[in-house]
Write a structure and sequence with these properties.
CATH architecture of the largest domain: 3-Layer(aba) Sandwich
Helix content: 40-55%
Strand content: 15-25%
CATH topology of the largest domain: D-Maltodextrin-Binding Protein, domain 2
Number of strands: 10
Distance between the termini: 58 Å
Structural class: alpha/beta
CATH class of the largest domain: Alpha Beta
CATH superfamily of the largest domain: Periplasmic binding protein-like II
Number of domains: 2
């Protein structure tokens, strides 16, 4: 073999390797992000699935690994353990950050609470005043449903513990307890409430948006590690998220079609959830000062903290698409 031939062969081999490395499809160049949902089924978190399906995250160089959890506490534990990079959780989860969890809120993505309190038709509960001493299920301690039921009790004048709050994990576990009459009711997303009402298994007693009209319902959380090492991935994710929200506002039918298998709901129920929840999604991710104030007060009122925390230390807006850097 001549030296010239060897040189040509080497160049050809290098070129072939380059084609394998760089021409093997966009997926090989994508940054992988592990994104958790506090609860897998509610429409509140469906934009993650829509963004994945329609390629909005991929367009920003991201591959999403989606992971569902049985409540806010599990989500925050996963963030602390570096088992996920980003978490789609609730406003009240800022309490975990205040207590030292290794993450920050990076976007407030939904406003008033899209939750309902449902009760068994035979539980003898006809108004919120009948809830005193009743056993109401929530997902986990410190999560959105937990906060909402305690706040409803406080507003009735019974203090934070006038209602028996029972953490049971996933929606499936709570619904099973409702059907076996082990609980009197539960706090649940609107789609779940509509479905159980239609089946005759429950009746809707209260919409929690009336309990806290100024409220930050959902927040995206990022680990301190991701913030320090890969801030551009956070910016890319949020850009893809808000592009997804804008697309969903203009495409109800296709959004509902994608949502149905994720939520395990019929087209009718998923459509009602779309109508109920879509208006609550933020287009900017900004943290509302009034909503932050409600959360800060509630942490003290529910005896979670001895005094109101400095809320400005629990979140950042520097990764939002509209923020100038």
């Amino acid at each position: 073999m001549t030296r010239t031939w060897r040189a040509k062969a080497l160049v050809a081999a290098v070129a072939a390797c380059a084609l394998v490395t760089f021409g093997g499809g966009q997926a090989s160049a994508l940054d992988k992000l592990r994104v958790g949902k506090a609860i897998a089924l509610p429409f509140d978190f469906v934009p993650l699935d829509v963004g994945m399906e329609k390629g909005f995250f991929k367009n920003h160089g991201l591959e999403i690994e989606e992971i569902g959890f049985a409540g806010s506490a599990k989500l925050q534990q996963a963030l602390a353990a570096d088992a996920i990079d980003l978490g789609l959780g609730s406003g009240p989860e800022l309490l975990f950050v205040a207590k030292g969890n290794t993450d920050l809120g990076v976007a407030a993505f939904a406003g008033p609470m899209g939750l309902m309190l449902i009760v068994r038709p035979d539980a003898g509960i006809n108004t919120p005043a009948d809830l005193k001493g009743k056993k109401i299920a929530v997902s986990t301690v410190g999560g959105l449903t937990d906060w909402a039921v305690h706040e409803a009790s406080r507003q009735q004048g019974w203090g934070a513990d006038g209602i028996q709050v029972t953490p049971l994990g996933s929606d499936e576990a709570q619904v099973a307890a409702l059907r076996t009459k082990d609980i009197d009711g539960m706090a649940i997303d609107v789609a779940g409430a509509y479905r159980l009402e239609k089946e005759g298994a429950a009746k809707i007693l209260l919409h929690f948006s009336t309990v806290a009209p100024d409220f930050i319902n959902h927040i995206t959380y990022a680990t301190n590690k991701l913030i320090e090492q890969h801030p551009d991935q956070i910016r890319a994710f949020l850009a893809g998220w808000f592009e997804t929200i804008a697309w969903m506002r203009q495409n109800k039918a296709e959004s509902v079609k994608i949502a149905m298998p994720v939520m395990h709901q019929s087209e009718e129920i998923a459509g009602r959830a779309y109508d109920e929840i879509m208006p609550s999604f933020s287009d900017t991710g900004k943290f509302d000062p009034k909503g932050l104030a409600v959360l800060a007060r509630s942490f003290v009122q529910t005896n979670q903290l001895p005094s109101e925390p400095d809320m400005s230390k629990l979140y950042t807006e520097k990764f939002l698409p509209s923020t100038k850097h």
